Amino acid sequence: MKFGISLISTKKQDHQKQIEYLLSQNVPDENIIVITESGKTRANSIVEKLKEKNVQSGDEVVFECFDRIGRNIVSIINAVEWCEDNKIEVYYDGKFLDRSTEQGEMETLTQAFIAEMYRIRRSHQSKKIIARDKANGTYKGGRPALSDKKIKEIKKWQAKGLKPAEISKITEVNRTTVYKYL
């Protein structure tokens, strides 16, 4: 069975281009794994999503480029190795990823390195833009972590005697963020 990964980092981005690519690679619509999450929370989520979809030995995983499966070289290699360990074939940019040869191994490392360099470059560009906007007095800052409604909900559960971990589960807010508002 063929599965595809479409991953974007923010809700402002659009999955359409990646989905069109996956469909052009004959990935069935129902087997396209659509993920919207930032790189900070991504870590091993690709492997977890593959497990949730019950991707197994003999299946194929398709993605357009390496930065769709990991945040850095280590996470990308971990995802590829998990697939290899489970005898799942990996395809990117229309090509089979064969790491059994030195050339295949080198290609994997090179593509993972390029993906990480793109991420670093984007991060530096964002920092430059923020610094410029701060200097010009036009920087408005990031969005608030939580809405007033969510903050009230957290405080309500605290008043009822719940612990931060319990509040985190009920409100679906990261425990660290819950602590910030207690």
What would you say about this model in short?
By secondary structure, the chain is an alpha/beta fold. Helix content is 53%, strand content 12%. It has 8 helices and 5 strands.
Structural account:
- The protein has 182 residues and is of the alpha/beta class.
- The chain has 8 helices and 5 strands.
- The chain has 2 domains: 2-116, Rossmann fold (3-Layer(aba) Sandwich), CATH 3.40.50; 148-181, no CATH class.
- Strands 2-1-3-4-5 form a 5-stranded mixed beta sheet, sandwiched between helices.
- Helix 4 packs antiparallel against helix 5 (102-136).
- The longest helix is centred in the middle third of the chain and has 35 residues, at 102-136.
- It starts with a strand and ends with a helix.
- Rg, rounded, reads 20 Å
- Overall number of structural domains: 2
Overall helicity: 40-55%
Describe the biggest sheet? 5 strands, mixed
CATH level-1 class of the largest domain? Alpha Beta
| CATH topology grouping of the largest domain | Rossmann fold
State the low-pLDDT regions, or none.
none
How do the SSEs run, as a string of H and E? EHEHHEHEEHHHH
| Tertiary shape | globular
Give the overall average pLDDT: 87
The assigned structural class equals alpha/beta
How many helices in DSSP terms? 8
Portion of residues in beta strands equals 5-15%
How many strand elements?
Answer: 5
How would you name the CATH homologous superfamily of the largest domain?
A: Resolvase, N-terminal catalytic domain
What CATH architecture of the largest domain do you see? 3-Layer(aba) Sandwich
What spatial order of strands do you see in the largest sheet? 2-1-3-4-5
N/C terminus separation = 48 Å
